[in-house]
């Protein structure tokens, strides 16, 4: 549960993100009570809708305006939104918190623990908090529960150790929701000339621990820092001085602010962007050239060679600028020295999206709405890939419903100009590697995206063989979210990813880089493996509403971390090129 949702109440004037977090917590608590699954799903869907809603609902309520009709949000949920907007409280949430042991919800933040397992831990072992879980793990009692085992117990032990050391992490959009308003506020301060966020956020790590904020300003009289500390969303000031401050935001993130002079801003930006390993390697290079590199600049014999601009630091060390996403000491300095840095992919390189859903399955927008949104982006194509019948929780399509959608796609393609809708499916890969729909139906599609949504506990060998058999289907094109991870919730399932990549290469299949922020699957390491093998990746939004196409930004960040260039992306091809590759 996020920090705002844990508070006794929310600040009046709550934003859509905070209301969504309340609805998510309600869903979690209802799940822990084993409540009606349709009711739980209603709150989760509403939270998802609110995250995609651009207009601040609380502002409309404060102005006495009626709320717009939103997908999945009926009278009851509208009343709760109004209650939160007016009072900062939700009586249902308060009641559920009283009924559910307060520490039980924290278990849901651990990898491998969902509501069913949390319910099992509570009722079979009496585990009602992280502390109680630590005792149960230390005593070896967790592994004896049905469905747990030693592997999951070891994962929990590592996750609990991380919690003890205070290493809380946030998904990129969670971090962006807190970083964006802060940055907007800082940039409008008259005393601040420049404001940037460095650290893992700038490197586009898949999760972020805290925010490192750099300001270019005159710090001598303390006025600039005093203005920073007036940011309304600050919950706590841990420490502050004229040039440095450590803050806690109401959203839960810690922020370290540093005010830097103009002639050192570039050096500080390079230093605090990191990673630590990249910084050490760069400082060693400086030492080898008789220089000293720190957050204030690059020096030789007391003379400052560079510091005002980040690019000047690299140039003075005989290197071209290295993109922040590559700064992990994974060969980027050697590549820069030998002029082998990749020309990293950009969002504008994509010609379309090959994985999206409509309200025919578990999406929120209609086929026409998704198509028009893609058309507005100037894309050449959009693949419609609903879930197949076996994923009943997502209202997956059977043969008849899929055939009706294919007819609808034909009608829309006759109307659209500049955009082609591709007929597709996200077909379930069953436990034995067979596909959920018959070959004669798959043969009628332009694109078949295969996905795993069950049987995560298969052994490494069986899971690998399962995916290889799926790719052996003559109609199989793309393996979706190949490793099955959910960041901060579920570890990747056991898999020999190198064998899967090699099999994709042999079969002429492709892998997906799923841009959903809780997935970002493949990770950067696997992206590099696929690039090395020459296997193209589909950078896909997995959109469930038109606004989800914006999530491709996160996928591009991950792709850049994985050294991908435009030529490495399947959906950087033109429609004609794509059709040839899919055949």
UniProtKB/TrEMBL annotation:
DNA-directed DNA polymerase X domain segment(s): 14-328
InterPro entries in the cross-refs: DNA-dir_DNA_pol_X, DNA_pol_lamdba_lyase_dom_sf, DNA_Pol_thumb_sf, DNA_pol_X_beta-like, HHH_MUS81, Hlx-hairpin-Hlx_DNA-bd_motif, NT_sf, PHP_dom
Cofactor: Mg(2+)
Listed EC numbers: 2.7.7.7, 4.2.99.18
Reactions catalysed: DNA(n) + a 2'-deoxyribonucleoside 5'-triphosphate = DNA(n+1) + diphosphate; a 5'-end 2'-deoxyribose-2'-deoxyribonucleotide-DNA = (2E,4S)-4-hydroxypenten-2-al-5-phosphate + a 5'-end 5'-phospho-2'-deoxyribonucleoside-DNA + H(+); 2'-deoxyribonucleotide-(2'-deoxyribose 5'-phosphate)-2'-deoxyribonucleotide-DNA = a 3'-end 2'-deoxyribonucleotide-(2,3-dehydro-2,3-deoxyribose 5'-phosphate)-DNA + a 5'-end 5'-phospho-2'-deoxyribonucleoside-DNA + H(+)
Keywords from the UniProt entry: DNA damage, DNA repair, DNA replication, DNA synthesis, DNA-directed DNA polymerase, Exonuclease, Hydrolase, Methylation, Nuclease, Nucleotidyltransferase, Sodium, Transferase, Ubl conjugation
GO molecular function, one term: exonuclease activity
Helix-hairpin-helix DNA-binding motif class domain residues: 65-84, 105-124, 140-159
Polymerase/histidinol phosphatase N-terminal domain location: 352-431
Location in or out of the cell: Cytoplasm
Domain of life: Bacteria
NCBIfam families: PRK08609.1
PANTHER family for this protein: PHOSPHATASE YCDX-RELATED
Protein task: Repair polymerase that plays a key role in base-excision repair. During this process, the damaged base is excised by specific DNA glycosylases, the DNA backbone is nicked at the abasic site by an apurinic/apyrimidic (AP) endonuclease, and POLB removes 5'-deoxyribose-phosphate from the preincised AP site acting as a 5'-deoxyribose-phosphate lyase (5'-dRP lyase); through its DNA polymerase activity, it adds one nucleotide to the 3' end of the arising single-nucleotide gap.
Name recorded for this polypeptide: DNA polymerase beta
Naturally occurring in which organism (per UniProt): Pseudomonas zhanjiangensis
């Amino acid at each position: 549960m996020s920090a705002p949702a844990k508070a006794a109440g929310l600040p009046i004037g709550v934003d859509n993100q905070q209301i969504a977090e309340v609805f998510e917590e309600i869903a979690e608590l209802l799940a822990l009570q084993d409540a009606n699954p349709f009711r739980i799903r209603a709150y989760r869907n509403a939270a998802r809708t609110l995250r995609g809603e651009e207009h601040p609902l609380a502002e409309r309520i404060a102005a006495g305006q009626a709320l717009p009709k939103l997908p999945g949000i009926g009278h009851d949920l509208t009343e709760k939104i109004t209650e939160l907007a007016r009072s900062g409280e939700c009586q249902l949430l308060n009641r559920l918190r009283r009924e559910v042991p307060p520490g039980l919800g924290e278990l849901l933040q651990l990898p491998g623990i969902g509501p069913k397992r949390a319910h099992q831990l509570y009722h079979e072992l009496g585990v009602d908090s992280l502390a109680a879980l630590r005792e149960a793990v230390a005593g070896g009692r967790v592994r004896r529960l049905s469905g747990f085992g030693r592997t999951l117990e070891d994962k929990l032990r590592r996750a609990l150790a991380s919690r003890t050391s205070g290493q809380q992490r946030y998904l990129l959009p969670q971090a962006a929701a807190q970083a964006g308003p802060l940055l907007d506020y800082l940039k409008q301060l008259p005393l601040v000339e420049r404001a940037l966020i460095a650290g893992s956020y700038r490197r586009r790590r898949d999760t972020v621990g805290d925010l490192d904020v750099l300001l270019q300003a005159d710090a001598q009289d303390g006025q600039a820092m005093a203005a920073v500390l007036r940011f309304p969303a600050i919950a706590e000031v841990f420490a502050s001085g004229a040039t440095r401050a450590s803050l806690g935001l109401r959203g839960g993130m810690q922020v370290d602010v540093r005010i830097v002079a103009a002639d050192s801003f570039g050096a500080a930006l390079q230093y605090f962007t990191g990673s630590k390993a990249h910084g050490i390697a760069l400082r060693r290079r400086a030492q080898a050239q008789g220089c000293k590199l720190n957050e204030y600049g690059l020096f030789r014999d007391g003379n400052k060679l560079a510091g005002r601009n980040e690019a000047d630091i690299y140039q003075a060390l005989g290197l071209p600028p290295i993109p922040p996403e590559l700064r992990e000491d994974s060969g980027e300095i050697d590549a820069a020295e030998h002029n082998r840095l990749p020309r990293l992919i950009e969002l504008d390189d994509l010609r379309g999206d090959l994985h999206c859903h409509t309200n025919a399955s578990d999406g929120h927008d209609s086929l026409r709405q998704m198509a028009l949104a893609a058309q507005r982006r100037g894309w050449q194509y959009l693949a419609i890939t609903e879930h197949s019948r076996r994923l009943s929780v997502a209202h997956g399509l059977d043969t008849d419903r899929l055939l009706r959608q294919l007819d609808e796609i034909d009608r829309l393609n006759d109307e659209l100009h500049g955009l082609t809708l591709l007929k597709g499916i996200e077909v379930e890969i069953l436990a034995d590697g067979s596909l959920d729909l018959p070959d004669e139906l798959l043969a009628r599609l332009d694109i078949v995206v295969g996905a795993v949504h069950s049987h995560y506990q298969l052994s490494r060998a069986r899971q690998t063989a399962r995916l290889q058999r799926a790719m052996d289907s003559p109609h199989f094109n793309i393996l979706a979210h190949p490793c099955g991870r959910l960041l901060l919730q579920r570890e990747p399932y056991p898999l020999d990813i190198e064998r899967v990549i090699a099999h994709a290469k042999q079969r002429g299949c492709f892998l997906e880089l799923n841009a959903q922020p809780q997935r970002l699957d493949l990770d950067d390491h696997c992206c590099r493996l696929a690039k090395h093998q020459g296997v193209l990746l589909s950078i896909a939004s997995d959109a469930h509403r038109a606004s989800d196409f914006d999530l491709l930004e996160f996928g591009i960040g991950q792709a850049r971390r994985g050294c991908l260039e435009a030529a490495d992306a399947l959906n950087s091809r033109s429609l004609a090129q794509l059709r040839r590759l899919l055949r």
